[in-house]
């Protein structure tokens, strides 16, 4: 067999920055708020935190990340926007907040004495998520601690919805009322934020001074309800590196979990679970080649997966659309994988090249 003239390897995620702009404007209009905290944690949900942050720097009020390390990475790249760190401060990273001008999250009374002088912080109250956060019963103690530790600066107060992904959840209103009561006990000049992408998209509530959005910026709504107005920003493509004949009854991949129902052609793609395709989508995922969808067959391997073309033969090097507007969107992947869109997008590893365009 003559090898292909061009070697194709790996895959590429193209992120359309114009789609990101449209999603941002849609979320602003939906919420009626201009002040936006753009959540770029977990490499901006797989979209590339540095490039996304640079693009948004003139368009949002501040950024938010999960950890001090993520914040430091943005600072070293030249990002000047305020950066809120959701993570819990520790003795090991406390000094980094002032050194890199990162905004801390105070979610425990002990954090007041931990943070160095000059550090800005947001208070995080647990209104029902039961993950981290100060308890509503601690409001008076928090106010006393703020007076005692005037060398650090309170720049915000927030909480987090637990069930806003569900458009009909009564618990959202319960949490909203509790946070409204908490917020009323603090100075009005301290801005508040509680609404994530789900709350902005699904609930007509007071969104306070800021909205805090991440997955919505990338073009997806949390949960199964996908409203019109959001555009997936990421399109993931690869190329067929080999086309092979396959006979009736031939087994494919580890475990031989799939057998060819009739003779045809099999395309091998240079992407696998080490790139971000969940192995659980073996024999479930479909990809687009040309104008037609084809099934991924056999178990997804670390570096490859196989596509049954039936009687259609394509050329080596043919473009294959894995995810996005030309293939199945990430929320369809998530539904089949019994997961959520966030996890599917965050799975994209550094092996997937990122490219950015504005069209």
Describe the structure.
By secondary structure, the protein is an alpha/beta fold. It has 2 domains: 148 residues, Alpha-Beta Barrel (TIM Barrel); 124 residues, Beta Barrel (Lyase, Ornithine Decarboxylase, Chain A, domain 1), CATH 2.40.37. It is 25% helix and 24% strand. The protein contains 11 helices and 19 strands. The strands form 4 sheets. An 8-stranded parallel beta sheet has the order 8-7-6-5-4-3-2-9. Strand 7, helix 8 and strand 8 form a beta-alpha-beta unit.
Q: How many domains, as an integer?
A: 2
Summed over residues and divided by their number, the pLDDT gives a mean of: 96
How many β-strand runs? 19
Q: Give the count of helical stretches.
A: 11
The N- to C-terminal Cα distance equals: 41 Å
- Bulk shape: elongated
Strand order of the largest sheet: 8-7-6-5-4-3-2-9
The CATH superfamily of the largest domain bears the name Alanine racemase
Given helix and strand content, the structural type is: alpha/beta
User: How would you classify the quaternary structure?
Assistant: single chain
CATH architecture of the largest domain, please? Answer: Alpha-Beta Barrel
Radius of gyration: 24 Å
**CATH fold call of the largest domain:** TIM Barrel
- What share of the residues lie within helices? 25-40%
Q: How big a fraction of the residues is strand?
A: 15-25%
Low-confidence region ranges: 1-6
CATH class wording of the largest domain: Alpha Beta
